Request: fold
Amino acid sequence: MYALALALSAAFAAGLMGCFALMKKMTLAGDVMSHIALPGLGLALLWNIQPVIGAIVSLGIGAVLIWKIEQKTDLPTETTIGVMFSAALAIGALVTPSEDIITALFGGANPVSLQTLLLYVALSALVVIFLWVERNRLVLSLFNADLAIVTGVNVSRLNLMYLIAFASTLILGLRFLGALLVGALIIVPAAVSRQFTHTLPNFLAGSALVSLLSVSIGYALASAFGLQTGPTVIALAASVFFLSLFKKKK
Amino acid sequence: MNAFLSVQDLSVSFGKLRVINNVSFELNRGESLAIIGPNGSGKTVLLKTLLGLTEHAGSFFWSPDARLGYVPQKIDADRHLPINLQNLLEAKASIQHLKRADILSTVKTVGLPQETLRTPIGHLSGGQFQKALIAFALLGNPNVILFDEPTASLDELSEEHIYELLNELRRERGLTVILVSHDLSIVPEMADKILCLNKSTVCFGPPEEALTEEVFAKLYSEPHKVFHHPSEHHHRHHA
Reply:
């Protein structure tokens, strides 16, 4: 039960985060950035410490590095993240014990303690609060950075905060989806919602709803048919996306 | 009288490339300045520097009560952004703690129908989009507006509408205006002063004094029609 509650809190945050990732054209970044957690996960498993701590440290360093490289060069975010991803994947594969590599990549259904659940719910709440409080600044900065600055937005600081929140969202999903699938929980619900909405509030609400439904129904299906939870959730969300493609364009 | 904007020896470089070189000028409250020059002459960079968007050498000072509005060069808005004009204007109103009621009145000021607020920004026509950007700049009641090529990529009719609107705003609100344009035809209608820029200042002053054959030759390095006061001609000349 705690595991489902953890997954739902992560799904809510991921659904909202995905909307901004989609608008910032960072959807693939979510997919590849999650791999940046791998070296941290691997080292944590190797040294017998909480994997989530390793992931947090690894992603935190990755987010700051990406932000710094973006500031120093004209390279787009996706390029910078792409290079970091390859390096992280290689290092992650080298340091992760071979018996743990599948769990690290695809997630697992390990039991969740109340303490862990509370930690994850708190982190989800922080991500959601950040997105709610900063939504107007995020909207302006992705529309036009110069206009945002003239309006009084510190775009550089906002981008750093966004990357940290983005990395936090990935950490939230890593436990049950793994490094290969967690990006999908950010991309897919937002992509579905985008098919049906034209305003920001509807877009956010739709994405959060699709994310929550995918996780809850995915958990139920995985439990009923003895399937792996992470791949079931993402396969379900992806099916909804493919169905949404049949919607007629206006 | 203290200048509303005072610019002293302003220079901007990108790496080793000097884009603006020792530009100085002053602008009084309520005056309108047109910055003209060929492509790559530093017009947009100068405007962005005055907005505090670019690192620079030298100095510029706005009057302490200056409230800046900015209309950027045409933004290629992503047609797929699920944001409507209401979302965009509400974002600014929220950041600057403005009244929500100001949104509707600003949209009316620029002549957009109220329904436009609910239109996704990517679905606005070129003219509507430009007016939406002007509404964005006007929200918060600025006393100076900086326009970067306000009619770029608009058809002639939409262009006329935008310039009529700008003139109206100047008359009714006493706005100080700084306008970057490659369109010399707007100079007589819009500008009290002209700054001809080709990395450094080529001319500065009232249009009828500043724009001479020599200035054009220096500015564009090619023969060009000289500005004539509207009382002499009404034809449009494009640089």
About this structure: The radius of gyration of chain B is 18 Å.
